[in-house]
Amino acid sequence: MPSDIAVYGLGVMGRNMALNMADHGLRVTVYNRTASVTESFVAGLPADTTITPSFDLPGLVASLKQPRTIFLMATAGKVVDLVIDGLLPHLEPGDIIIDGGNSFFKDSQRRWLQLREQGIRFLGMGISGGEEGARYGPSIMPGGDPDAWPIVSGMFQRIAARAEDGEPCCRWVGEGGAGHFVKMIHNGIEYGDMQLIAEAWQLMRDGLGMRSREIAETFASWNKGVLSSYLIEITAEILTVTEADGSPRVDHILDAAGQKGTGRWTAIDALELGVPLTLIAEAVFARTLSSMKQERTAASMRLGGERSPFEGDRDAIIAAIHDALYAAKIISYTQGFLQMRAAADEYGWSLAFGEIALLWRAGCIIRSRFLDDIKRAFDRDPGLPSLLFDDFFAEALREADPGWRDAVTLGVRTGIALPALGSALSFYDGYRSAVVPANLLQAQRDFFGAHTYQRTDREPGTHWHTRWTGDRGEELVDD
Fold first, then answer.
1. Which of 232, 431, 438, 200 is nearest to 320 (CA)?
2. Under 8 Å between Cβ of 106 and 178
3. What is the distance between the alpha carbons of residues 55 and 32, in angstroms, rounded to a whole number?
4. Which residue from 289, 64, 20, 274 is spatially nearest to 155, judged by alpha carbons?
5. In this structure, are residues 199 and 205 in contact, taking their beta carbons and an 8 Å threshold?
6. Contact between residue 175 and residue 143 where contact means Cβ atoms under 8 Å apart
7. Active-site residue (options: 183, 199, 282, 329)
8. For residue 247, what are the β-bridge partners?
9. Which one from 190, 199, 282, 329 is the annotated catalytic residue?
10. Residue 190 catalytic?
11. Is 270 in contact with 264 (CB distance < 8 Å)?
């Protein structure tokens, strides 16, 4: 009996996706460029498995029912192009190639267009959830050829994570690179969420002198309320793990965070689209700064000073840190959805923002209760300019405002860097300001570069220039 789908690439994610598919009744052909990897994988399968191995590309293609569907779990970048080039001579028009790796969305856009010319239907499918998600149900963000999606949707909605209401976390996102773009935004928000939690942890540990077990209990209690999320849950768990001497294991982990590049992609794309993605960009920079361990250690000896012990109502400041974390999380998602809105305009995608929030409710790293609130906001107004225009989120920020400022002030007073919490507050204050100091910036630009400016008391769209070093007269400049 022919297979429903082939999985090309048997790394951890590929193996787990194949097992997940088989668990849900799919017949799966598996292939890896190194034959011994395939042999080792299938050797551990039960006798009644629906997974069959293939050791060459003609055999892989021949094992599939038509139209053939091949799911790639290859390293993002040039490797994906090489794999596709190797498959093409064996495929026919109408066959489907799915890239389930962590590819850059512009690569997926390019592959979709190139393969369409050859009659091959391409899907760029963002997958989130790590090893466990791949094995038992990930969040899946498909984009690419809209004609291919109805053919494979049943398979992928079957293996996807399911939210509490039973809905699969797998819905069509849009044409071309839209699926991998949404996955990129997910990863950027993940960077922001993780940095925010780390800053809250440091405020409690270094600013308030709280012990690890007490902080763990605090996070666990927060996980029962508006901050309920996978990342808060695992943070509470991490902080309970100790060494043989009773010291927290996290304190023995080198404070240098790694990154695979998706956060940088998000920040770079925001710059290209002109979106103020300040929080996520700061989260990326914070990881970069953390990697400068030797330099930071030397600077601490040369520049460091002692922190003043906290004096005040500790319970009140813990509540303030909670509010700051919640408010900044709202800002992070606000910025992420602003970027998706700008991308939809730039690339001609029709992104359903409320539906995207539903994709992240289960299976993925940023899953949280909070996402239902985002869905309800876009249900109330599908054309919402940003989340901050929704009454629910606007009121949440107003309520969190005093605590948010107290938490950031604690960081300033105690010398604890808060790049994410602080930049979120600055964005909030700037976004809700009818007047910002950009008029002075524009005057400076006109002074040194004759870049012109518009006036608030003249016809909109007309541009003016002042002779700043001459008679200081002003003239209308033709476009």
1. 200
2. no
3. 7
4. 20
5. no
6. yes
7. 183
8. none
9. 190
10. yes
11. no
> Which residues contact residue 128 at a Cβ distance below 8 angstroms, ignoring those fewer than 6 apart?
138, 139, 141, 183, 186, 187, 360, 363, 364, 365, 366
| 119, amino acid identity | G
- Cα separation, 372 vs 358, in Å, equals 7
Structure tokens at 267: 């920040």
Sort 44 into a burial class: Cβ within 10 Å, 0-12 / 13-18 / 19+.
exposed
In the residue annotation, 183 being an active-site residue is answered as yes
Length, in residues, of the chain = 479
Give the integer Cα–Cα distance in Å for 420 and 402: 17
pLDDT along the chain (479 residues), means of 10: 94 94 96 93 92 94 95 92 95 96 94 96 94 93 96 96 91 95 94 96 95 96 95 96 93 85 90 96 95 91 79 93 97 96 94 92 86 93 95 97 97 94 97 95 94 94 93 88
Rounded to whole angstroms, how far apart are CA atoms 253 and 249?
7
Q: Give the closest residue to 332 by CA, choosing from 161, 158, 186.
A: 186
Q: Which phi and psi angles does 71 have, rounded to 5°? A: -105, 115
Cα–Cα distance between 179 and 162 in angstroms, integer?
A: 19
Q: Which two tokens stand for residue 389?
A: 């225009």
Among candidates 9, 13, 11, 6, which has minimal Cα distance to 58?
Answer: 6
| Residue range 240-295, pLDDT digits in tens | 999 999 999 999 998 888 777 788 999 999 999 999 999 999 999 999 999 999 99
**Cα–Cα distance measured from residue 229 to residue 116, given in angstroms and rounded to the nearest whole number:** 40
